[in-house]
Amino acid sequence: MQMPEPDRGVIGRKREIIADLQEILPQESVIYDEDELRAYENDGLTAYRQIPLIVVLPETTDQVSQVLQYCHENSIKVVPRGAGTSLSGGALPLEDGIVLGLGKFNQILETDFENRCVVAQPGVTNLGITNAVEHAGFYYAPDPSSQIACSIGGNVAENSGGVHCLKYGLTTNNLLGLKVVLIDGSILEIGGKHLDSEGYDLLGLMTGSEGLLGVVTEVTVRILQKPASARAVLLGFETSEAAGDCVASVIAEGIIPGGMEMMDRPAIHAAEDFVKAGYPLDVDALLIVELDGPPVEVDHLLERVSEIAKTHGAVYNRISESDEERARFWAGRKAAFPAVGRLSPDYYCMDGTIPRNKLPHVLTRMREMSEHYGLGVVNVFHAGDGNLHPLIMYDANKPGDLEKAEEFGGDILTLCVEVGGVLTGEHGVGVEKRDLMGSMFSEIDLNQQQRVKCAFDPDSLLNPGKVFPQLHRCAELGRMHIHRGQLPFPDIPRF
Ligand SMILES: Cc1cc2nc3c(=O)[nH]c(=O)nc-3n(C[C@H](O)[C@H](O)[C@H](O)COP(=O)(O)OP(=O)(O)OC[C@H]3O[C@@H](n4cnc5c(N)ncnc54)[C@H](O)[C@@H]3O)c2cc1C
């Protein structure tokens, strides 16, 4: 993994930078001891590690502003970090960069039931928002499987999703306002408790910007009233292809479930061994479909979904009879990643999105690739959104295994783009998919995206080395050729 060349001058000034930062922040909020820095050396993409130069833990927007202004004036790179659960390496530190951790921003500032919103600091966990409002019958809909740990600031930066996003939208659809500190220390207020504002959609631009445009220090999100009832059905199929066809048919019939998830045989077995969710073990694919709303509507829709599943050859159908049973159905799905962690020393979690009707084709191709690379793959995905999460199993201690897993993952994502999908559904680009950006975007697209980055951060100090591709991989993807000595992608910094 090639990262920008570290600035030796900045590394040489480490003592001076620590002293300067201690003028801005309390002593204990500036971490520079190597053992303590090690806690920040990676995020959820554990294949890559780098001990940062320094970690700072501010606790007010004003402190963030002063730190960023100092870094701007002294050409020091900054990597924002929430809870560090990113699966694409978005919070991977830099040798010559400061990690700016938002862990101390952990307060809910306001719960406003009248306006149906919550104002929170960015370090509050995703689940923390629901916990703060559920006593009044409300919840925050986007529910990444990492919701007990990941921060709402990280959710904004990655535009995170989850099981319920099929019906209720991703982070971007549930976000109302942000406070953002720009690299020069200025503070930008975007949106608020009201609906859309006039002008450019800066809220949309910041969502999914992966820490490259500014540091979020306050978030206003929409909360929803809990549905009157919810029931889930487990549907088992003899092939993943049949389950994939069933997903496409349910949506084509105009039914939008609260959640529609799919697991293949290895995932079913891993999850069942781990949490005893009550899954059938003799099927090749399992759908968990949840319907929510008034009880009469839920019962009617469950019947229709069951009928559709039957026409696709479902061999197993079990409807939850209580909230406890429904929660147990989901517990298996939510624990699927750690469950797979028990099957293989390491796994690489991919995240691509495809048009729903391409699911059977993509699953077949993935099986062929698995044989080709000699690495197992387990499939767990947000089937309703066409968002795949293949988990490629490998052993980091086996020479060459990681490289094979990376190549396999790259092939899967390229296939997603080929069939009309996109490189990421919800985990972001980070460093993981950075070098594949050329397979999806043209030179014109990438140049324009880079110009947006330049408008916010002209010196590329915020999270450099993430999202925008390295040129040698663009060349491999056949997207770069030098014509009459003219350099393509002239705006992209070379490193
Ligand atoms: C077991 C597991 C399951 C997961 N399941 C899901 C899932 O179902 N759906 C899903 O979408 N994701 C999932 N993820 C991925 C991850 O949890 C999300 O991407 C999450 O939003 C990251 O939040 P974080 O606080 O950990 O951010 P971090 O990992 O700390 O950072 C992620 C990115 O956001 C930037 N960032 C963080 N905070 C800020 C801020 N305040 N201002 C500006 N930039 C910031 C960082 O620079 C980085 O680029 C999963 C991860 C794990 C480990």
What does this structure look like?
- The chain has 495 residues and is of the alpha+beta class.
- The chain has four domains: 8-101, Uridine Diphospho-n-acetylenolpyruvylglucosamine Reductase, domain 2 (2-Layer Sandwich), CATH 3.30.43.10; 108-225, Uridine Diphospho-n-acetylenolpyruvylglucosamine Reductase, domain 3 (2-Layer Sandwich), CATH 3.30.465.10; 229-337, 2-Layer Sandwich (Alpha-Beta Plaits); 344-432, 2-Layer Sandwich (Alpha-Beta Plaits), CATH 3.30.70.2740.
- The chain has 17 helices and 19 strands.
- It has helices at 8-12, 14-24, 34-37, 61-73, 126-133, 152-158, 165-168, 202-206, 240-252, 265-275, 295-311, 323-334, 336-341, 359-373, 401-418, 443-456, 471-476; strands at residues 30-31, 54-56, 77-81, 97-101, 108-112, 117-120, 138-139, 175-181, 187-191, 215-222, 224-225, 229-237, 259-264, 285-293, 316-319, 346-349, 352-353, 377-382, 387-394.
- The strands form four sheets. Strands 12, 13, 14, 15, 16, 17, 18 and 19 form an eight-stranded antiparallel β-sheet that branches.
- A hairpin with a 5-residue loop joins strand 8 (175-181) and strand 9.
- Helix 9 (240-252) crosses helix 11 (295-311), helix 10 crosses helix 12 and helix 14 (359-373) packs antiparallel against helix 15.
- The N and C termini lie close together (12 Å).
- 49% of the residues are buried.
- The model is unreliable at 471-485 and 487-495 (pLDDT under 50).
- Bound molecules: flavin-adenine dinucleotide.
- Flavin-adenine dinucleotide binds at residues 43-44, 79-87, 90-91, 102, 122, 144-146, 150-151, 153-155, 157-158, 160-162, 210-211, 215-216, 337, 426-427, 463.
- The site of flavin-adenine dinucleotide has 36 residues, from strand 3, helix 6 and strand 10.
